Amino acid sequence: MTNTRVPRRTGRRHPLMGALLLVIGLFVTGGAYAATSAGIAMAETPPVSQASLIDEGEKLFLANCASCHGLNAEGREAGPSLIGVGALAVDFQVGTGRMPMAASGPQAEAKPVQFTQAQIDALAAFVASLAPGPGMPNPEHYAGDGDAAEGGALFRVNCAMCHNVAGAGGALTEGKYAPHLRDLDPVHIYGAMVTGPQNMPVFNDMNLTPEQKNDVITYLKYLDETPSVGGFSLGSLGPVSEGLFVWLIGLGGLIAVAIWLTARSN
């Protein structure tokens, strides 16, 4: 009979077991620290609240606008009251560079924008907090994906008498003018229709629905993207530029030819 000896356990661990436990401990500790740090960082950098946005807008207003519009936006001789104009009017006026004005004149002219969009949003939030007014529209209302033909018909009835049928602009009385409507930001076109800046009438939702405003914007974007099918457009200003061209170039050319023929006959 053969004795089979069962090997006894010595109780010793594998030499690499300690290193493996150390690595696992480091991973667990590092993961817990990263999760805790992320939680602390998120707690330290909360999103900008509406109250802080309004506070920032008030500081910008006092530094850049109060000299004309008053410390409380109540208006002065140099500038009208802004109470109740709403966020959309601020976005249009400041977002197109019309405000702050460089100098007093018949009307505010578009110029390079002096504020970032974040600062414009803060100014708009402050003015909107003073009293109810037109707010920022839903992006689908100025997406420019409407009916261009319907928008063209609406534009010719409501806008062409001042802005020209091609959106090239035109002169008004007392040194004022209707600006051109080419290559503009769609939200600013929408804002102009809703707020009626300067001499422009207000087109509220009873006059033009948001869908119809989008159709008008679609028509104007179509004009931006479509070249003149008639060749040189002469600025699309209509009879004024065309008549001037005829008198100076056409008639002048005929006179020049007549002089040349007379000189040859002599």
What is the compact description of this entry?
The chain is built from 10 helices and 2 strands; from the N terminus they run αααααααββααα.
Uncertain stretches: 38-46
Number of helical regions? 10
- Regarding quaternary structure, how should these chains be classified? single chain
CATH structural architecture of the domain at 137-232 = Orthogonal Bundle
What does the radius of gyration come to?
34 Å
Net shape? elongated
In round numbers, the mean pLDDT is: 84
Elements, N to C (H/E): HHHHHHHEEHHH
Would you give the CATH topology of the domain at 137-232?
Cytochrome Bc1 Complex, Chain D, domain 2
CATH superfamily of the domain at 137-232: Cytochrome c-like domain
User: Strand pairing plus helix content: what structural class?
Assistant: mainly alpha
Question: How many beta-strand runs?
Answer: 2
Question: Could you explain how this protein is built, in words?
Answer:
The structure is a single chain. α4 (86-95) packs across α8 and α6 packs across α9. With 266 residues, the protein is mainly α. Among the domains are: 48-135, Cytochrome c-like domain (Cytochrome Bc1 Complex, Chain D, domain 2, Orthogonal Bundle), CATH 1.10.760; 137-232, Cytochrome c-like domain (Cytochrome Bc1 Complex, Chain D, domain 2, Orthogonal Bundle), CATH 1.10.760. The protein is elongated. Helices cover 52% and strands 2% of the residues. Strands 1-2 form a two-stranded antiparallel sheet.
